[in-house]
Amino acid sequence: MKKRNGLIILTLLLPLLAGCPAQRTLSSEEEAFVGFWHSAPALGGNTWGERYFFFPDGRFAFLYGEWPDENQRDVSFSGTWVLEEDKLILNITEKVFLEGGKVIEDTVGEKWQGAVEKTMRINPPEERTVTLTPLTDDDIFPEHPLKKTTFDGQSFWKTHNDPEAYIEQLK
């Protein structure tokens, strides 16, 4: 009877365990990248620039800037990440983009009207290699020093060590 109960419990738990992301040990360089990165050193205003979220379990998300443009319909992409020397390897498993609609002018500026977000799963994952520069200390705000690097030549600042701090942007 105990053996049968054990099998029943195991059968019920396996689907739950299968959905858990595998934890990996981060290198010290990877630990330094965990957090929220923004394409400007200051946050604020009505729009955000491009943003990276690097999670300690190896997941990442990238959000494009919030400047409406009829020719730029991509919203985000996400997947897993790893550092290899001076390269960031992104394995993209999902992309979100806008379909339909148009850009209109309102009292705050331009915005999308009538566009619908669509999600596309990528299988097999799309591998993207991003060239990095070494992390540097940027004392643009002496009371709140920031880490800075470039992703393929574009500057980014680590504005928070916890990627969950701005998680509402991913919803």
Q: Can you walk me through this structure?
A:
The chain is mainly beta. The protein is 13% helix and 45% strand. Strands 8-5-4-3-2-1-11-10-9 form a nine-stranded antiparallel beta sheet. The chain has a two-stranded antiparallel sheet with strand order 6-7. Strand 10 and strand 11 form a beta hairpin. The longest helix is centred in the N-terminal third of the chain and has 17 residues, at 2-18. The radius of gyration is 20 Å and the shape is globular.
Low confidence ranges: 1-21
Mean pLDDT figure: 83
Major pleated sheet: 9 strands, antiparallel
Beta strand %: over 45%
The helicity comes to 10-25%
User: Topology as H/E string?
Assistant: HHEEEEEEEEEEE
Layout of secondary structure:
Blueprint: H1 2-18, H2 28-33, E1 35-38, E2 51-54, E3 59-63, E4 74-84, E5 87-99, E6 102-105, E7 110-113, E8 116-131, E9 136-138, E10 146-151, E11 154-160
Antiparallel strand pairs: 1-2, 1-11, 2-3, 3-4, 4-5, 5-8, 6-7, 9-10, 10-11
